[in-house]
């Protein structure tokens, strides 16, 4: 529609409004016509090629996505139709272990496909060693509930407490020394000082007859220490030198001694093994010692002999029952003076340089703690690595 430029202004506005109105009608009718054509085309296609309509997959409900959570909230058991298989941390690798001449274990990891497709749930608690942030907490799969307490066991995947709670070390070939300081838990101030002043490389042994052991254990583990449980055993000079009611005794039968051992074990968690306190008579009696060694082997614990009894049979029986075992080479504080303890530490270093490794033991006396902390501070500069005792015991699994 043409517009007359010479027409009055009001007339031109009326014509423009009429033109817009006509244009809107045309567009509306055209849209309806196109829609009708599309609908007729779709109907014709459906008639010629009939295909059943299907519903698109809906998003899973909370119960379908997480049957365990639904079961716990509703109280009714819910079974997942296809649960994801839990996988071990090393299920995607071939692991080959080689023991070197210097006693170090070298592991070679070769990738391989996992047993199942899809995502894998990996139980972090079952890996070797322990995340330092979780070191004060036990791996639940390595515990059993007994009347005597929560006792260590080998996990379903073969992981031993000795491996889980061992302090990591560099793996380098060199002179390695383990120092074990025992008697923790008997004196509050002595225990607190030992945990505070000794470097984390020192292994701490907690006396089964001590007090507040679980609290002290957690503090020691948070600071990075490997720990042992120190179990009293009957000495040759008993009853003059009486280790107390918790002691394992030659006169008791196997059932009594195992019950007492388990009561001691239930005092704390997170230890790599057991160390004797006294025990010359008990360690030299094969009938009394054999059930104890069998039990330690079944539980995946190491045994450290403090080396004070020349008649001890712990090494022989440990080898018979595949118990990881070690002997202390030097008692560092048989005489409580700083100069003597430092000389004993130098003796320990000479043994380690000759044989590659050495183990020293001491008690948590003030003189011992101060001297050991001072010596370790300088030992690193001489190429000595102080490691947890689990790194130096003879392990039948790797020998």
Q: Would you write up a description of this structure?
A:
The protein has helices at 9-48, 62-65, 67-74, 161-164, 188-197, 213-222, 254-265, 280-283, 286-298, 314-320, 338-355, 366-379; strands at 86-87, 93-99, 105-111, 121-122, 143-146, 149-152, 175-184, 203-207, 227-233, 273-278, 302-305, 325-327, 330-331, 357-363, 384-386. The protein has 399 residues and is an alpha/beta fold. It has a domain at 161-391: TIM Barrel. The strands form 4 sheets. Strands 7, 8, 9, 10, 11, 12, 13, 14 and 15 form a 9-stranded parallel beta sheet that branches. Helix 5 packs parallel to helix 12 (366-379). The longest helix is centred in the first third of the chain and has 40 residues, at 9-48. It is globular, with a radius of gyration of 37 Å. It starts with 8 loop residues before the first helix and ends in a 13-residue tail after the last strand. The model is unreliable at 1-10, 29-37, 42-49, 51-91 and 120-127 (pLDDT under 50).
Give a summary of the structure in a few sentences.
This protein has 399 residues and is an alpha/beta fold. The chain contains 12 helices and 15 strands.
């Amino acid at each position: 529609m043409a517009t007359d430029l010479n027409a009055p202004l009001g007339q031109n506005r009326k014509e423009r409004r009429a033109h817009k109105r006509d244009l809107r009608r045309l567009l509306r009718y055209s849209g309806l016509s196109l829609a009708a054509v599309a609908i007729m085309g779709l109907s014709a296609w459906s008639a010629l090629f009939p295909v059943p309509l299907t519903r698109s997959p809906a998003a899973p409900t909370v119960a379908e996505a997480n049957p365990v959570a639904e079961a716990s909230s509703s109280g009714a058991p819910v079974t997942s139709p296809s649960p994801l298989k839990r996988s071990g941390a090393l299920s995607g690798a071939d692991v080959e272990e080689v023991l070197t001449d210097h006693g170090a274990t070298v592991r070679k990891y070769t990738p391989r496909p996992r047993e199942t497709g899809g995502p894998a749930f990996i139980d972090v608690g079952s890996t070797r060693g322990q995340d330092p942030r979780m070191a004060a907490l036990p791996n639940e799969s390595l515990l059993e509930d007994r009347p005597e307490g929560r006792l260590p066991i080998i996990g379903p995947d073969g992981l031993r407490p000795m491996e889980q709670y061992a302090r990591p070390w560099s793996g380098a070939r060199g002179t390695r020394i383990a120092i074990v300081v025992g008697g923790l838990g008997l004196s509050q101030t002595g225990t607190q000082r030992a945990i505070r002043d000794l470097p984390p490389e020192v292994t701490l042994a907690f006396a089964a007859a001590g007090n507040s052991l679980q609290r002290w254990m957690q503090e020691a583990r948070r600071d990075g220490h490997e720990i042992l449980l120190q179990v009293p055993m009957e000495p040759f000079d008993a009853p003059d030198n009486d280790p107390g009611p918790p002691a394992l005794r030659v006169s008791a039968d196997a059932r009594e001694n195992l019950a007492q051992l388990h009561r001691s074990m239930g005092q704390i968690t997170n230890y790599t093994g057991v160390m004797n306190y006294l025990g010359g008579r008990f360690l030299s009696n094969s009938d009394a010692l054999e059930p104890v060694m069998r039990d330690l082997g079944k539980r995946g614990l190491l045994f450290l002999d403090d080396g004070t009894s020349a008649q001890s049979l712990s090494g022989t029986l440990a080898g018979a029952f595949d118990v990881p075992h070690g002997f202390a080479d030097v008692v560092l504080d048989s005489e409580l003076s700083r100069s003597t303890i430092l000389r004993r530490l130098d003796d320990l270093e000479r043994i380690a340089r000759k044989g590659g490794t050495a183990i020293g033991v001491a008690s948590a006396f003030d003189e011992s703690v101060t001297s050991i902390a001072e010596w370790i501070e300088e030992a690193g500069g001489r190429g000595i690595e102080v490691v947890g005792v689990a790194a130096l015991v003879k392990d039948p699994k790797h020998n």
